[in-house]
């Protein structure tokens, strides 16, 4: 059921306290193209935002998977709803327990960024240099032999973003970004 590599499965125990694993799939979601999947999600979420007021959002009853970022269910948009995610985290964690970093910073300066995360977590500084792609692939293969077979990727080859969808996404995210 899901993770089969013992090393990875131990990182994500099925019975973790307070964690619910959703490995269900929307029927036939992946036969649709990216644009159609995103437009379907926009329609689902739009019903949750009353009069464009993000304060009146109630996603649980109107979005099939609730506030899910599970890509297996076709959830593409939730990852961009940062305020909703932070609000959820703050229900069980204090603000001092959250640490935010940007993807751009992690990519542009990984050693410094990992050092900041380590310090925040109270761990010793352990990353001394950035690995080359070959070093990273060898390390992954040695430690998690099933990584590639399970479909995991480090830097996926994405299709070019369809620019004609950008205005639709900007309009969708606008009330959420105000928050």
Automatic annotation (TrEMBL):
Residues 76-125 form the Sulfotransferase domain. SUPFAM superfamilies: P-loop containing nucleoside triphosphate hydrolases. It holds the Pfam family Sulfotransfer_1. One of its GO terms (molecular function) is sulfotransferase activity. Keywords: Glycoprotein, Transferase. The keyword Nuclease does not apply. PANTHER family: BIFUNCTIONAL HEPARAN SULFATE N-DEACETYLASE_N-SULFOTRANSFERASE (PTHR10605:SF56), HEPARAN SULFATE SULFOTRANSFERASE (PTHR10605). This is Sulfotransferase domain-containing protein. It comes from Noctiluca scintillans (Sea sparkle).
């Amino acid at each position: 059921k899901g993770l089969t590599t013992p090393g990875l499965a131990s990182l994500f125990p099925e019975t973790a306290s307070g964690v619910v694993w959703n490995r269900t799939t929307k029927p036939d979601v992946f036969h649709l193209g990216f644009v159609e999947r995103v437009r379907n999600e926009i329609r689902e979420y739009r019903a949750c935002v009353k009069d464009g007021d993000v304060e009146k959002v109630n996603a649980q009853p109107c979005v099939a998977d609730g506030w899910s970022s599970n890509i297996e269910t076709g959830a593409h948009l939730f990852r961009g709803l940062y305020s909703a995610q932070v609000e959820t985290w703050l229900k069980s964690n204090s603000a001092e327990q959250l640490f935010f970093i940007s993807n751009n910073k992690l990519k542009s300066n990984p050693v410094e960024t990992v050092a900041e995360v380590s310090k925040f977590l109270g761990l010793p500084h352990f990353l001394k240099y950035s690995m080359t792609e070959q070093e990273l692939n060898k390390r992954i293969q040695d430690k998690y032999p099933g990584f590639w077979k399970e479909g995991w990727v480090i830097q996926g080859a994405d299709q070019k973003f369809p620019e004609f969808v950008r205005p639709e996404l900007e309009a969708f995210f606008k009330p959420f970004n105000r928050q």
